[in-house]
Specification:
By secondary structure, the chain is of the alpha+beta class. It has helices spanning about 10-35, 40-65, 75-95, 110-130, 140-175, 180-185, 190-210, 210-225, 230-245, 250-255, 255-275, 285-320, 320-345, 355-375, 380-395, 405-410, 410-425, 425-435, 450-460, 470-475, 485-490, 540-545, and strands at about 460, 495-500, 505-510, 515-520, 525-530, 560, 565. Strands 1-2-3-4-5 form a 5-stranded mixed beta sheet. Strand 6 and strand 7 (about 565) form a beta hairpin. The radius of gyration is 30 Å and the shape is globular. It starts with 8 loop residues before the first helix and ends in a 15-residue tail after the last strand.
Length: about 575
C-alpha cells in the first residue's frame, strides 16, 4: 500500500474491501446526521458543529476512496487531515454568517458547490505531484489524473442512479402481485443512505481497476468536444464583430450580460482544453483544430474584458452585491486564463504550449480565490455590506435610497449588524434601519413607475389610427405574471382588436413573447379572459397587422350535461395549427 497504485490482485482486493467499508461507514454516518438534523433544540446550539460534520462526512470519504487509487498512503493521510481542517473552517464560517434562528442546519448550497470545486482541483494538484515525487508535475500527469477521476465520478454517479432505478423497478414488479415489503425497505432512510454510499464506493473501485475503459471514454468525449471549437470560435468572432454596429446597450439591457459573457469564455476554455488534451507532440490535432484553437485562445480575453466592464458599470451605479463580488472573483480567475491563453496563441510552436503552465497556475489561483470567498477574507456578504454602508457615509446614496431590505434579508449576519449600528448612530438612516429590524418588515415589492404615457409609447396599436381605451392604460395591473411585460414594466408589445365574445364590443389582444393575451372589459375593469398560442406559424402576426383577422365560430358546440359544459378537445390549441381552418 506504499505505492501510488495497487498492482497485485491481493492489493486490489484489499483496496476493494477498504472502499466498501468506507462507503458503509459513510452511509451510516449520513443516516445518523440526517436524524440529528430534525432535533431543533440540539441544532440551535450546535449548528457550526453540524455544518462541519456534514461537509466532512460527505467529502472526506470521497477523497479517501479516490485517493486510494492515486496517492501514496502517507500523502493520502496528510491530505485527508488538511482537507478536514479546511472543511472545518469553511463549515464554521458558513454557519456563523447566518442570522440566529433563520435557515436550516445544513451548509449553504453555494458552499457545497464551491467545496467540491476546491477539493477536486486541490486533490489533483496533489495527486499529480505525489505521482512524480516533485512539487510541480508534468502537464500530462495532471491531465491524466484529473480527467480520469472526473470521468470516474460521473460514471459512478450514473451507476448509483441506475442502481436505484433497478430497485424501484423490482419493487414495482412485486407491487403488482401484492408484495409491498421490498418497497417498504428501499424507501427507509436507514437503507437509502448506506446503500447509496456503498454502491458509490463500489462504482469508484470498479471504474478505478478498469482504467483502460475510462481512458477510452475520455478520449471519445474530448474528441467530440474538440470539434465544437471551430463552431464556438466562429460564433464568438461574429458576435464581437457585430458589437460596433449594435452598440453595447442591447447587451446591458439583458440584465445578465456578465454571466453570459463569462459562461461563453468558460465554455471556450473547456473546448480548447478538449482539443489540446495532454499536449503530447506525437498526437497533434488536425490542422482545422489547430487554427481554430489558436483563434479561440484569443477570444476569452475579449469576453472577460466585456464582462469586467459590465460588472464595473453595475458596481459604479449600485454598489457591490454578493452576486457582483462573485462575478469579480470569476473575472480574476478568467483573466488568468485569458492572459495565458493569449500568450499561448501568439507563440508559433509548439501549438498552445504555454496553455499548460497557465492551467496549473490558474488552478492554484482558483483554489485561493474560492477559499477567500468562503472565509471572512472576501466573504461576498461582508464586502457588499461594507460597500453599501461606505456609499451611504460618503454621500453616494442618501438615507432614503439605501437598500435596507438588502441589509435585512440578503446579507446575513453582516447586514443585521450594519442595521443595528445604523440604529445606534441615529438620524434618518437609523430610523429607517429600526423599521427594517421590526419583525413585520417585509421585502418590499418593486414599485413600477409605469404610467399610462409609458404604456401608450410602448404598445404599438393596430390598425393605425386606433388607440387603446384610456381606462385600459390607466388600470393597475399588479407587478407581473400573468400579464404581458408591457403592462407592468418598460417593455414593448403589440395590440389588436377583435370581438371574441360576440357581444358587439371588441376585446383587446396583446401580443408579447409569442403569446396573445385577450382582455375583456367587465364592470369598468379589464380582465384577462384567456390566451391564444400563435405557435410557429410564419406570417401570422404580419397578417394580423394587415387587419386580416376576424372572430371565427367554434367548429363544434359544447355539450351541456346537467348544467355542466363539456368541450370537445380536438388535439389543437387555438391558433396553434398553421393549416387552413
Amino acid at each position: 500500500m506504499s505505492d501510488s497504485r495497487p498492482d497485485s490482485t491481493e492489493d486490489k482486493q484489499t483496496v476493494a474491501i477498504v472502499r466498501l467499508v468506507i462507503g458503509l461507514l459513510q452511509g451510516v454516518a449520513l443516516y445518523l446526521l440526517w436524524r440529528v438534523a430534525d432535533d431543533q433544540i440540539w441544532m440551535a446550539q450546535m449548528r457550526p458543529l453540524f455544518a462541519v460534520l456534514a461537509l466532512v462526512i460527505v467529502y472526506v470519504p470521497v477523497i479517501v476512496l479516490v485517493g486510494l487509487g492515486s496517492l501514496r498512503l502517507r500523502t493520502l493521510l496528510a491530505w485527508t487531515i488538511v482537507a478536514v481542517l479546511v472543511l472545518a473552517g469553511l463549515g464554521v464560517h458558513d454557519a456563523s454568517r447566518a442570522i440566529e434562528g433563520q435557515g436550516g442546519p445544513w451548509p449553504s448550497f453555494g458552499l457545497w458547490v464551491v467545496t467540491a470545486a476546491i477539493l477536486f482541483i486541490a486533490h489533483h494538484l496533489i495527486a499529480a505531484a505525489d505521482g512524480e515525487r516533485r512539487i510541480i508535475a508534468s502537464y500530462p500527469r495532471y491531465f491524466e489524473i484529473a480527467w480520469k477521476n472526473g470521468v470516474q465520478l460521473v460514471l459512478s454517479g450514473a451507476f448509483v442512479g441506475v442502481f436505484w432505478l433497478v430497485l424501484h423497478l423490482g419493487a414495482a414488479l412485486f407491487d403488482m402481485i401484492g408484495i409491498q415489503q421490498l418497497r417498504d425497505v428501499i424507501v427507509e432512510e436507514w437503507f437509502v443512505f448506506p446503500a447509496t454510499a456503498v454502491m458509490a464506493a463500489a462504482a469508484i473501485h470498479l471504474t478505478d481497476v478498469r482504467s483502460g475503459l475510462i481512458r477510452g471514454i475520455r478520449t471519445v468525449a474530448l474528441t467530440l468536444l474538440a470539434w465544437l471549437v471551430p463552431l464556438l470560435a466562429g460564433l464568438t468572432v461574429a458576435f464581437l464583430l457585430a458589437l460596433p454596429f449594435t452598440g453595447l446597450d442591447p447587451l446591458w439591457r439583458t440584465g445578465r450580460a456578465a454571466a453570459l459573457l463569462l459562461g461563453a469564455a468558460a465554455t471556450l476554455i473547456v473546448l480548447i482544453n478538449a482539443a489540446y488534451q495532454d499536449g503530447q507532440p506525437d498526437r497533434p490535432p488536425p490542422a482545422p483544430l489547430r487554427w481554430s484553437g489558436r483563434l479561440a485562445a484569443i477570444l476569452p480575453a475579449a469576453l472577460i474584458g466585456l464582462a469586467a466592464y459590465a460588472i464595473w458599470l453595475r458596481v459604479d451605479q449600485h454598489g457591490l452585491t454578493p452576486e457582483r463580488v462573485i462575478g469579480i472573483a470569476c473575472v480574476v480567475v478568467g483573466a488568468c486564463y485569458a492572459l495565458g491563453y493569449v500568450a499561448a496563441a501568439v507563440r508559433t510552436a509548439p501549438w498552445l504550449k504555454p496553455l499548460e503552465a497557465t492551467n496549473i497556475v490558474t488552478g492554484v489561483v482558483a483554489v485561493a480565490v474560492l477559499l477567500a470567498l468562503f472565509t471572512p477574507l472576501a466573504d461576498p456578504e461582508r464586502l457588499s455590506v461594507a460597500n453599501q454602508i461606505w456609499r451611504l457615509e460618503n454621500g453616494t446614496v442618501s438615507a432614503a435610497e439605501l437598500d435596507y431590505a438588502f441589509l435585512r434579508f440578503r446579507s446575513g449576519r453582516y447586514g443585521q449588524e450594519a442595521l443595528e449600528q445604523l440604529v445606534a448612530q441615529g438620524g434618518a438612516a437609523g430610523d429607517q434601519a429600526a423599521r427594517a429590524l421590526q419583525p413585520d418588515f417585509r421585502w418590499p415589492h418593486r414599485e413600477t413607475a409605469i404610467t399610462p404615457e409609458i404604456r401608450r409609447a410602448n404598445i404599438r396599436v393596430w390598425p393605425d389610427g386606433r388607440s387603446l381605451p384610456d381606462n385600459f392604460l390607466r388600470q393597475d395591473w399588479g407587478t407581473g405574471w400573468p400579464q404581458p411585460n408591457c403592462l407592468t414594466a418598460k417593455a414593448e408589445c403589440e395590440a389588436f382588436f377583435a370581438d371574441l365574445t360576440s357581444d358587439g364590443v371588441a376585446e383587446v389582444l396583446l401580443s408579447a413573447s409569442g403569446t396573445i393575451s385577450a382582455y375583456q372589459e367587465q364592470e369598468g375593469r379589464w380582465e384577462l379572459i384567456g390566451q391564444l398560442e400563435p405557435g410557429d406559424c410564419p406570417g401570422l402576426l404580419d397578417a394580423m397587422r394587415a387587419g386580416t383577422l376576424a372572430p371565427a365560430p367554434p367548429r363544434f358546440a359544447d355539450l351541456d350535461v346537467a348544467g355542466r359544459r363539456l368541450r370537445l378537445e380536438t388535439g389543437r390549441t387555438a391558433l396553434s395549427g398553421c393549416g387552413k381552418s
